[in-house]
């Protein structure tokens, strides 16, 4: 469903991604790994269209989306939770969630926040009228993921969703990703370094180094040695 071939991308004159090729199949959870600064966020931004590709092709459900702007990619079904969440602190939780409706590609805008999304993150239901800025970091991360889910994306991009979050919420987010996978309606491409997560939940992994894919394979076969080789400094 997502096919990237020979993607080159970067900032201004500086090239960060050098001919990256990667595939996410329908219903898969794919883990993107790599040390700091190797280009994981740059890849996420390039898939979402926030960075213009210098070379290569990005296809989504068979269509070439390489030159589409971010809003069109969102309407095509790609949801994105950036690193650092980027929720609106002055808006309430409910208003933040409603912003997710703007990415709905076709059909009527729902009047209410979908119950199944609130069921995944019960704290958000309790806090619907609270300002986003008053939530803890872990609650804001839940809000950011829920906001991406209200538009019913077919591909969800998560950039380090577990970073800097307390263990109980890490577990909740892992359960949510597992339940998204079980429902088989949304594929997930996420930046995550944990070997435990990758082997337990992901189907496939890619390791980036200096802007290129240096290892990839079935997540169940990912070994501690491989992680040590590619991910420790
Ligand atoms: N806005 C920017 N302008 C110029 N260079 C940037 C910009 N953002 C990132 N870079 C550079 O691009 C390279 C890749 O950064 P990127 O954020 O994609 O890495 P990453 O793998 O996501 O790392 P991290 O785990 O630290 O988030 C780095 O050398 C970084 O300094």
UniProtKB/TrEMBL annotation:
Entry keyword set: Amino-acid transport, ATP-binding, Nucleotide-binding, Transport
Transmembrane as UniProt keyword: no
Q: Which domain of life is it from?
A: Bacteria
One GO MF term on file is: ATP binding
- Residues annotated as domain ABC transporter: 2-231
Q: Which Pfam families match?
A: ABC_tran
In terms of NCBIfam families, this protein maps to: urea_trans_UrtE (TIGR03410)
Q: Report the sequence similarity comment from the record.
A: Belongs to the ABC transporter superfamily.
Question: What's this protein's name?
Answer: Urea ABC transporter ATP-binding subunit UrtE
Species per Swiss-Prot/TrEMBL record: Paenibacillus thermoaerophilus
């Amino acid at each position: 469903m997502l096919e990237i071939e020979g993607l080159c991308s970067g900032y201004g004159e500086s090239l960060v991604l050098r001919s990256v090729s990667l595939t996410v199949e329908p219903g898969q959870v794919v883990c993107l790994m790599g040390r700091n600064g190797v280009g994981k966020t740059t890849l996420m931004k390039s898939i979402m269209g926030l960075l213009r590709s210098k070379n290569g092709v990005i296809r989504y459900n068979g269509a070439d989306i390489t030159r589409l702007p971010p809003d069109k990619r969102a309407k095509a079904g790609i949801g994105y939770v950036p690193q650092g969440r980027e929720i609106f602190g002055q808006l309430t939780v409910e208003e933040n969630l409603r912003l997710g409706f703007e990415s709905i590609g076709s059909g009527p805008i729902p009047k209410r926040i979908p119950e199944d999304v609130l069921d995944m993150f019960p704290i958000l239901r309790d806090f619907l009228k609270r300002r986003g800025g008053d939530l803890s970091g872990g609650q804001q991360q839940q809000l950011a993921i829920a906001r991406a889910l209200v538009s019913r994306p077919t591909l969800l991009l998560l950039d380090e969703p577990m970073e800097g979050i307390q263990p109980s919420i890490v577990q909740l987010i892992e359960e949510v990703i597992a339940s998204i996978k079980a429902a088989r309606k949304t594929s997930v491409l996420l930046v995550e370094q944990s070997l435990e997560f990758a082997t337990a939940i992901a189907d496939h992994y890619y390791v980036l180094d200096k802007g290129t894919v240096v290892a990839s394979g079935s997540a169940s076969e990912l070994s501690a040695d491989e992680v040590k080789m590619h991910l420790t400094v």
